[in-house]
Amino acid sequence: MRGLLLALVAFVAGYGTALTTSQQPGEQAPQTAMQGERSQLAVDNSRSSGRERFQVGQDGHVLTVADIDGRSMEVLVDTGASTIMLRESDARRAGYRLQNSDFSTRVNTANGQTYAAPIVLREVELGSIRVRDVPALVGRDHQLGVNLLGMTFLSRLDSFRFEGRELILEN
Question: N or C, where is the chain less crowded by C-beta within 10 Å?
């Protein structure tokens, strides 16, 4: 399971991951969410500037909950992922009605090629931090064990950094 998780995180990891467009859709199959310790959101209420702190889990990941288009979703904050990548079932819960033909963006991964559906999220919120109109991809549930919160969100912040065992986001 751990090896599969790492492969899934690598699904959209790094700026070097090539994204190309094609018109061949994939198939859907269910998958359970990633096992792991959810990071507790420590809100810094002393400032209204939009500063949030997340504890890094013992596994080295930041797993928490974000509100995406008004729906709470478990996400893995991934500074190595080039985009937000949602599981199809979570995208549907947020109101995105995708057809097979929408899965047209070919994504080259460490495990080969697969297809994802491009969307634009109206709003992504982590505590006091809110970002609007964020490009994202939707992957089939069997391709992705957990939603990834990548650079299409993080690059819109004023800053993000690691201090010890904390990830600090500022907007």
Answer: N
